[in-house]
Amino acid sequence: QHADEAGIAWPRTLAPWQVHVIGLGKADGDERVAAERLYETLREAGIEVLLDDRDAGAGEKFADAELLGCPLRLTVGRRSLEDGLAEAQGRRGALSLAGVPLGEGTADAVIALLNDLP
């Protein structure tokens, strides 16, 4: 089954984007800047990634992420940024996963998470 009450849940091999990056906070805030860097890092590593850089609230971004159904959602918020991480959540089964380090080793950590997803 590739859907639930929240929307589509793409399998990793069929998803138009494998990763959905969400930056929280103000448009010029550190969280958004870190999310853009994460997006660029993943793109350069050949990962199909979507960046939500809209000026919308967290709830709206998370709801839209559920509808789009990317297998992996990475969120950069104030608390996770302070820890040097992006929060990771799998779409299918709403899996909460270990955070992804921001900086060196980011792409490898994301690839490892993707390989563990259905």
CATH architecture call: 3-Layer(aba) Sandwich
Helix content: 25-40%
Estimate the strand proportion.
25-35%
Measure the end-to-end span.
11 Å
Mean pLDDT: 89
Per CATH, the superfamily is Anticodon-binding domain
CATH third-tier fold name = Rossmann fold
Q: Supply the number of helical segments.
A: 4
Report on this model:
This protein has one domain (3-116): Rossmann fold (3-Layer(aba) Sandwich), CATH 3.40.50. The strands form two sheets. A five-stranded mixed β-sheet has the order 4-3-5-6-7, sandwiched between helices. Helix 1 (30-44) links the parallel strand 3 and strand 4. The chain is built from four helices and seven strands; from the N terminus they run βββαβαβαββα. The termini are close together. It has helices at 30-44, 58-68, 78-82, 106-116; strands at 3-4, 7-8, 19-23, 49-52, 72-76, 85-90, 95-101. It has 118 residues and is of the alpha/beta class. The model has no long low-confidence stretch (mean pLDDT 89).
